[in-house]
Structures are given as structure tokens and as C-alpha cells.
Amino acid sequence: MKRVVISGGSSGIGKGLVEIFADAGWKVHFTFRSNEAASREIESRFNGRAKAHQLDVSEREACDRFCKEVLAEEKGIDVLVNNAGITRDKLLFAMEDSDWTDVLQTNLSGVFHLTRRFAFDMLKKKRGRVINLSSISGIHGLPGQTNYSATKAGIIGFTKALAKEIGPFGVTANVVAPSGVTTPMIEKLTPEAKATLLQNVPLNRFCEPGEVAKVVFFLAEGAPDYLNGSVIVLDGGAG
Known about the structure:
Layout: E1 3-6, H1 12-23, E2 27-32, H2 36-45, E3 50-54, H3 60-74, E4 79-82, H4 97-125, E5 128-133, H5 137-140, H6 146-166, E6 171-178, H7 184-187, H8 191-198, H9 209-222, E7 231-234
Parallel strand pairs: 1-2, 1-4, 2-3, 4-5, 5-6, 6-7
């Protein structure tokens, strides 16, 4: 049985990721920060193939304990998917220090905390795949998201550098960068804001979480080993 770790798996994109891997017979370890009821419901549906762990990925020591626990239980993993992320959207002049640091610590430092431990284990086995979730915001930038855009751009740079470090040892790293996805984040937007986001999307709709999950699963299971350091953009043709 193949094993995957997914951060931020209780809702939205993360929930879709847990479901697609567990449905395919993988053993899934996924994290949640506060949404325990939803996480336990997901866990119960898959009869032992999905295991939920409460974790704040911004906390280094907690991440170290989590990685140690999973590696002790599984004797290694095959794929790491860094998906956990938050937003604190504000224009820059209105942004508090905490709006900046909270987003960076969760979205970017969280990737560092988990990848450092799990990728090192992959290197020892000379196999494995790291898949990081970025965003179109990290490529083009979006107003009100200087903090979020910075983290998502940082994830792309992090992954490209990582791919060069771990590629020689049989481990790959790639990025999936969706635009608007029908998650609770999108649902909070006003109709006017949603219309603005869609005005340059030829498909005239938002991306579904399951569509992101299909691309991530392809990178985990079906992608050639030569696909390394790439950014796959899901923007409906907006360009």
C-alpha cells in the first residue's frame, strides 16, 4: 500500500485530495488545525485508510513530532502534499504585522517544516514525490493579497530549488497552481468580486476541488519521473 501525507485535509482542496487518494487504496495521513468534526467524519468513511492528525503547520516542534510519528508508523512515505494554507486579505497599508506573519508562517514555513523531514526520508530510500500547492496569486499577484501572494510565489521558488537538490536522488518536486477554486474562501466573496475574478476565464467558472485533486494524483501516481521542478497552472485558460 502506498502512503501519502497531506497537510490541511479537512475541507476544500484538501478534502478532495484525501478522498481521491483513499479511494485509490492509498494510506492517507492528513492534518487539520481546528476542524476536528469534519476530519473525524472523513477518517471514519475510509475504514482505516485515512488517519487525521491535529497539527498547526506553523509550529516547528509540533511538525517535527508529527513527522516522527508518521515515519515510525509507516516506515517511510511515498508522497508528501503540502496543501495547508490561510488567508488574511487586506490592502498593504491596512495590514497588521500578525496578518503578515501568520500567513507566512502557515503557508510557507509550514511547507519548510514538513518537507525538510519527509523529503530527507525519501532521499534515504531514493524514491518519493513532493507536491506543493501554490496559486495563481503567486504567479500574477492579486490586490489585497501581498502576504498570500508572497507565500505562494515563495512556494514556487522553494519547489524549483528543491527539485534541483533532490532530483539526483530519485525524488521529484512539483507545484500545482490553481486560480479560483470553489472552497469556503471563494464562497466568502461578494458576487461582484466573483464576477471580477471570472471575467478573464474562458470557461466562465471556478475550478472544482476535485479537478485540483486529479492533477495532484497524476503527479503522485502517473507522472513520469522526468517531470520535476514544474508548475502546473489550473486557470481555465485565463493565461
